[in-house]
Specification:
Blueprint lengths: L3 H7 L34 E6 L5 E6 L11 H17 L12 H19 L21 H8 L15 H17 L6 E6 L6 H11 L11 H8 L3 E5 L8 H7 L5 H12 L8 H13 L5 H15 L12 E6 L12 H12 L52 H16 L2 E7 L2 H8 L6 E4 L8 H15 L1 E6 L5 E3 L2 H11 L4 H13 L4 E2 H8 L8 H10 L1 H9 L8 E3 L2 E2 H7 L3 E4 L22 E4 L2 H14 L20 H11 L6 H26 L4 E2 L2 E2 L8 H4 L7 E2 L3 H4 L1 E2 L7 E5 L2 H5 L3 H6 E5 L9 E9 L11 E9 L6 H18 L10 E7 L9 H6 L4 E4 L4 H14 L1 H4 L2 E5 L3 H4 L4
Parallel strand pairs: 3-6, 3-7, 4-5, 5-6, 19-20, 22-23, 23-24
Antiparallel strand pairs: 1-2, 8-9, 8-25, 10-25, 11-12, 13-14, 15-16, 17-24, 18-21, 20-21, 21-22
Helix pairs in contact: 2-3, 2-11, 5-6, 8-10, 9-11, 15-16, 15-17, 17-18, 19-22, 20-24, 22-23, 23-24
């Protein structure tokens, strides 16, 4: 039995070696004419009867009712599909003890398939003949079929270096469970939304590959595993080797579903060597349609034949969908140029002779699905305004916007097509809005999110970096100011580069490749930036254009705020387009975020996910590089005496340029200090922009307080064991929407406090001496509300004295408590005005995570308000965008790639 199954599947085309199809694979014995009538059959008559499990068997008959000479092409294809299905699944359902008894039945099926093909293929254009070759994907056993269809779902780049088997299996499990739980909802449309390179195609490929996996992909649920293994999967793609072109828009003139149907037929006729070529096949079909030698109804009948051949359960079944249709990058259809004027005139002439046929009656629950009419109109689609072909070539869909009428109409028609044939359509998209618009159509589609995109997982990149360093014998060396050299552990480097990739798999691949390309002793970050060509990141070029042109997009990304995709950025540009282009990452939060589960999208269609926003550090750095190259000075000149209102939006780029400069500082502690002051400036300007342009602030699914009424504990969220002093730290509210223009120096506290309020509020103040006692810098805020004493009064300034820690170990009493007392005394004794003791706080910013202490230590030891923020709390201060640089600072600050195979490393001299 086991040995017989592959034999059956290998010959599932039904043509034995001595009856092999001719070179054109049409199965005809002579050149096929185009659109010929079905010839009178000369073979035996046949009947069909249902058998257990939905399979079909055949037998010879002399009944006049079964005379195939009276059958139409559609009826012949239906009969052929049932015979092909019976042959494909014959021995799967046959008990091993009676396997030998099935051989005559198999021979009969193969003979009848051969004879039916000899009737069908002469009635079709030669270009459609490869669909009936026994080597076509349609008839291959599942492992070979998956390999062939996998050619349509190739991630760019291949991303083999960052594959992770465990994460991949979990992605498949979540996606399949989501499909399984919604299998009875005929309106469901599976969706995968993400920016370019986020892993949409990769997830669809994982679903396809899981069909042929040698080990169970869904351990723990045998029923779901069995259901998934029995589910046929079909694939179409508008990217890669079947990428969209203007010819698809011409095809869409004959019906919005035609570009998808042409791809479905091509994918099922593909062979292991990738033939036939899709571009040639698409051009041939378009030529035949334009010449009137092929009708859309024939294409749809062939699609029905394809689906009925592979679908084990009958399409009249009422227990859910019977197959999966993966449609990758459909939105690419809207990014192509319109057909040429000559083709448009030809289409117009062709359209003038076309008349519409009324749609057939809808299918009943007990009968087979209704067939499309000659024009390809499906019964599930009744809104003519979604069909560009109805209006003639003058309405040819083309729109330079990311989502145009062509792609929307094709998606709606594909949904109708899938519903007609009981398929679950799964669409990958760059645009959230593209999907939402389909959900709002009269078709009543219901969205089914089929899982998270974990290709952006930092741990996956870290593991890949670790493997790359070991395989290439390279390491990352940090040289401190004292000249002592050290090599970072590979796991530290892996984590840092995973963060620096900013959630973009293609950037991660460039990072890994930069390790190999870096010369011994060359600064890594500089080399990486030189390698980060937007062309290497596919559609990232448009993402970087958006970051360069719209400071508010950068601001939102830096602070991680979530913005409604339907809201405008400026003019006609929506936030949905920002997310679609990949300038920002907008994705459902994972369980690690503590807000929602990574599998939250798996259940009901009514579930509202929680989104998070991220800014790719790699994209940000590339945008700054481009801004620097285009202008020697970004933004208008800033006079320190001008009021704050003169701060321009473009000044955010100048502040971020200072942040970028810290990445090339050789000494890590010095780089950390420069980074903090520059980052505080940039973040304040980002807050200003967000306060002006956003009506509400939401981060990681949680509403944020108004920037004009934030407490110091919200601006500087300390770890609970490191909070001390009075209660006004939490009660007093300050205005955090005002931007710092720059970083300025001060020589002593008395000089600083002698300045007027506007001067103090305008800048981040840095101590001019490296060994300045207790304080490294100061920032000022204006109090907007406080109802507790002691504490600041409304309108007064609040001083935040900063101390920056880079060392790995911090002594609580020496490094924090003593410094806090000294700083408070300096402020109290240096001003003749109102006392600063009730309106100043001491804030420590530590790049390292601090050890837990008893919560009362700081509060009991000092009366001065103290907040100690370690690495875990810096995200709230700098925003998730710049916090990525904090987390990757071990590599980002003054690191160079070295060859660990050279003599000095082998001898242990470092």
């Amino acid at each position: 039995m086991a040995s017989a199954v592959p034999d059956v599947l290998e010959d599932a085309g039904g043509i034995s070696s001595r009856h092999e199809a001719p070179d054109d694979a049409s199965g005809a014995t002579e050149p096929a004419s185009r659109a010929h009538p079905v010839p009178t059959p000369t073979g035996p008559r046949a009947t069909i009867s249902s058998s257990k499990g939905g399979c079909w068997s055949s037998s010879s008959s002399t009944s006049d009712d079964s005379d195939v000479s009276a059958l139409s092409l559609e009826e012949l294809l239906t009969l052929l599909a049932k015979f092909q299905q019976g042959l494909l699944y014959l021995l799967i359902d046959v008990d091993q003890q009676i396997a030998a008894a099935a051989k005559p039945q198999r021979r009969t099926l193969k003979r009848q398939i051969k004879e039916l093909k000899m009737l069908v293929t002469p009635a079709l254009p030669r270009e459609l003949g490869p669909l009936f070759s026994r080597k076509a994907a349609l008839y291959l056993p599942i492992p070979d079929r998956v390999a062939v269809l996998g050619q349509l779902l190739l991630p760019n780049p291949a991303l083999e270096s960052i594959r992770d088997g465990a994460l991949d299996r979990e992605q498949v499990r979540i996606a399949v469970r989501s499909l399984y739980q919604t299998r009875l909802d005929a309106r469901g449309v599976g969706t995968v939304v993400g920016f370019p390179g986020m892993g949409k195609t990769y997830l669809l490929r994982l679903l396809l590959e899981s069909q042929a996996a040698s080990t169970p992909a869904l351990v723990g649920d045998a029923e779901m595993e069995s259901w998934w293994r029995s589910l046929p999967v079909f694939v179409i793609s508008f990217n890669g080797i079947t990428s969209a072109s203007s010819e698809d828009l011409a095809l869409a003139e004959f019906g919005p579903t035609v570009p998808g149907v042409v791809r479905l037929l091509h994918s099922e006729m593909m062979q292991t060597d990738g033939s036939p070529d899709f571009s040639a096949f698409r051009a041939d079909v378009l030529r035949l349609l334009e010449a009137g030698e092929l009708a859309v109804s024939i294409l749809l009948q062939l699609s029905s034949y394809v689906l009925e051949t592979r679908c084990r359960r009958r399409m009249a079944s009422t227990d859910g969908f019977v197959a999966l249709l993966l449609a990758d990058e459909l939105v690419q259809l809207s990014r192509v140029s319109p057909p040429s004027p000559l083709r448009r005139r030809r289409l117009k002439r062709r359209q003038s002779g076309r008349t519409s046929s009324p749609p057939p009656a809808s299918s009943s629950s007990s009968g087979p699905p209704s067939r499309p009419d000659a024009r390809g109109t499906l019964p599930a689609l009744t809104s003519s305004d979604l069909m560009p072909g109805i209006g003639g070539p003058a309405a040819l869909p083309f729109d330079p916007a990311p989502v145009s009428h062509a792609a929307k109409a094709a998606l709606s028609e594909l949904c109708a097509f899938a519903n007609c044939f009981c398929l679950r359509l799964c669409v990958s998209s760059l645009s959230e809005g593209f999907i939402q618009r389909q959900m709002a159509t009269p078709s009543g589609s219901v969205r089914v999110r089929i899982g998270p995109l974990w290709l952006v997982d930092d741990a996956r990149v870290a593991s890949a970096v670790d493997r790359a360093l070991v395989a290439r014998g390279r390491g990352f060396q940090v040289t401190s100011q004292s000249g002592v050299a050290s090599v970072l552990p590979t796991e530290v480097v892996g984590v840092c580069l995973g963060v620096l990739a900013g959630g973009h798999p293609r950037a991660a691949v460039v990072l890994i490749n930069s390790i190999e390309a870096s010369r011994d002793g060359e600064p890594f970050v500089g080399n990486f930036l030189s390698k980060l060509d937007p062309d290497q990141l596919s559609l990232a070029a448009s993402s970087i254009d958006i970051l360069c042109a719209h400071p508010i997009v950068v601001a939102v990304g830096l602070l991680g705020y979530e913005v409604d995709p339907k809201r405008p950025v400026c003019g006609d540009m929506l936030w949905d387009q920002v997310y679609a282009h990949g300038a920002l990452t907008r994705g459902v939060l994972h369980r690690a975020d503590g807000r929602t589960s990574s599998s939250a999208s798996r259940s009901s269609a009514n579930h509202t996910p929680t989104y998070g926003t991220r800014l790719s550090v790699a994209f940000l750095l590339e945008a700054l590089k481009r801004k620097a190259a285009s202008s020697s000075r970004i933004g208008p000149a800033v006079d320190v005496l001008l009021p704050v209102a003169t701060i321009a939006d473009e000044d955010l780029y100048a502040a971020l340029q200072d942040v970028r400069a810290t990445l090339e500082t050789g000494d890590a502690p010095m780089a950390w200090e420069r980074f903090v002051f520059s980052a505080l400036t940039a973040v304040s300007q980002a807050r200003r922009l967000c306060s002006l342009h956003l009506s509400s602030l939401v981060r990681d699914g949680q509403p944020q307080p108004s920037l004009r009424g934030s407490s110091l504990t919200q601006l500087f969220p300390a770890s609970p064991p490191y909070v001390g002093g009075t209660a006004w730290l939490e009660a007093a509210q300050v205005d955090a929407s005002r931007a710092f223009r720059d970083v300025r120096r001060f020589n002593d506290v008395a000089e600083l406090l002698a300045k007027d309020d506007e001067d103090l509020l305008d800048s981040v103040w840095q101590a001019n001496k490296p060994n300045f006692p207790a304080v490294d810098g100061v920032v000022f805020f204006r109090c907007t509300h406080c109802d507790i004493e002691p504490g600041p009064r409304h309108g007064e300034l609040v001083a935040v004295m900063l101390q920056l820690k880079h060392r790995e170990k911090t002594n609580l009493r020496r490094d924090i408590i003593h410094s806090a007392v000294s700083a408070a005394e300096a402020f109290s004794s240096s001003s003749a005005g109102p006392s600063w003791s009730r309106r100043s706080a001491f804030v420590v910013l530590s790049r390292r995570a601090l050890p837990p202490q008893r919560q009362g230590d700081v509060a009991e030891a000092v009366s001065t308000p103290v907040l100690v923020v370690d690495e875990t709390g810096l995200k709230a201060i700098f925003g998730p965008g710049l916090h990525a640089l904090v987390r990757s600072s071990a590599v980002a600050f003054g690191t160079q790639v070295v060859d660990l195979t050279c003599g000095r490393f082998r001898k242990g001299l470092v």
